[in-house]
Structure formats: structure tokens, C-alpha cells
Design a protein that fits this description.
The chain is α/β, with parallel strands linked by helices and about 190 residues long. It has helices at about 5, 40-65, 115-120, 135-145, 165-175, 180-185; strands at about 10-15, 20, 25-30, 70-75, 100-105, 125-130, 150-160, 175. About 35% of the residues lie in helices and about 25% in strands. The protein has a six-stranded parallel beta sheet with strand order 5-4-3-6-7-8. The protein has a two-stranded antiparallel ribbon with strand order 1-2. The protein has a single domain (about 25-185), classed as Isochorismatase-like (Rossmann fold, 3-Layer(aba) Sandwich). Mean pLDDT is about 90; it is low at about 1-15. Strand 7 (about 150-160), helix 5 and strand 8 (about 175) form a beta-alpha-beta unit.
């Protein structure tokens, strides 16, 4: 589904025929954590590529004074625990100390995390989703956002997986936006 058609409902034409889009967006950086870079070379390369787009989006959101929210998966079974190196977000992701942080234990970043309330408090209605793993936590978070009446949009080229076919599939079944289009809309 093209993003512009889904955003059409949130647009109005001014007297000069300019499109005005009314949305308050937040950037979600899902599960880009050190441990996932060691899954396979394909996964490492996919994550490194996605991080370039994630960092560009982080810079854009800061420029526009919009929230950046880092989400980390916690699992004792997988040794993904606070204080462990694998749990940490790599230094290559340009987060700042004042960026919001969410720790989750389910694929859906909204499930029992307080993310919904934080977004409502910030007046957010649209979430731009980036991160790992495209076909699991990213897609689950996308669906969770839809279920809670947020408008989820995947930032093209900013999601990662250990299976490159899954990247294409996720981008085909979700609303997506390029970095250039996002820059123009925000």
C-alpha cells in the first residue's frame, strides 16, 4: 500500500493547492543491539546498512525536534540482559542520552512497555519504524501500532534481517516511505 494514499486522509489542500500534512511523528529504533550483529554475515551486513538510514533518520528527527525512541529486547533465555554487552545498542547508532528508552520482552514494542502512554503524552499519531528483525519485532511493532490507532510507516532501507527476502516482503506488505520523502513531509 503506497504511503501517500494512506496519508491522504490526513492532508488538506490550501488555497494555493499545497498539500499540508498534519502528523506528529516519532522515530522508533527497534532492537538494534550488539548481539544481533553476530547472527551471520548476512545479518551483520544488513544491520550495518540499515544503521546508515537509521542514523540519517535520527538526525532528521532531532533537526525537527521530534522524539527518537530506542527499543531494546530483553530475554534471559537469550542472555539479552541490561548490563550485558549483547543487550547494548552499538555506538554506531547515534543515539543521545536524552532519547527515550524502552525495554521490551515481547516482539511487539507496545506490549506491556508503556510505549503507548509515552507516545500519547507526546501527542504522537504516527510512528516511523526502523530496526531489527524485519519479519519479527519490526513487523509485530508495526501491527501493534495499527491496533492502537497509530499510523505506522516503515522507513525504507532502515530495517534489517538475516534473510534478505524477508526485507522485501515486509516492505511490500507495509506502508513505507523513503528518507527523502520523509524529509519533505516533516
Amino acid at each position: 500500500m503506497p504511503v501517500l494514499s494512506s496519508l491522504y486522509a490526513a492532508t488538506t489542500l490550501t488555497s494555493r493547492h499545497e498539500i499540508v500534512i498534519r502528523m506528529k511523528a516519532a522515530l522508533l529504533v527497534v532492537d538494534i543491539q550488539n548481539q544481533f550483529f553476530g547472527i551471520s554475515q548476512v545479518c551483520t551486513d544488513s544491520l550495518k546498512s540499515a544503521v546508515q538510514y537509521v542514523n540519517a533518520a535520527i538526525a532528521l528527527f532531532r533537526e525537527r525536534n521530534l522524539p527518537v525512541i530506542a527499543i531494546q529486547h530483553k530475554s534471559a533465555e537469550d542472555d539479552l540482559l541490561p548490563g550485558k554487552v549483547g543487550f547494548d545498542i552499538p555506538n554506531t547508532v547515534r543515539l543521545e542520552p536524552n532519547d527515550l528508552r524502552i525495554v521490551k520482552t515481547h516482539g511487539n514494542s507496545f506490549n506491556n512497555t508503556g510505549l503507548t502512554e509515552k507516545l500519547h503524552d507526546l501527542g504522537v499519531d504516527t510512528v516511523i519504524i526502523t530496526g531489527f528483525c524485519a519479519e519479527q519485532c519490526v513487523l509485530s511493532t508495526y501491527k501493534g501500532a495499527e491496533d492502537l490507532d497509530f499510523k505506522p510507516i516503515i522507513l525504507k532501507n532502515s530495517i534489517a534481517s538475516d534473510n534478505l527476502e524477508h526485507l522485501k516482503s515486509v516492505e511490500e506488505i507495509t506502508d513505507t516511505i523513503s528518507l527523502g520523502a520523509l524529509r519533505a513531509l516533516l
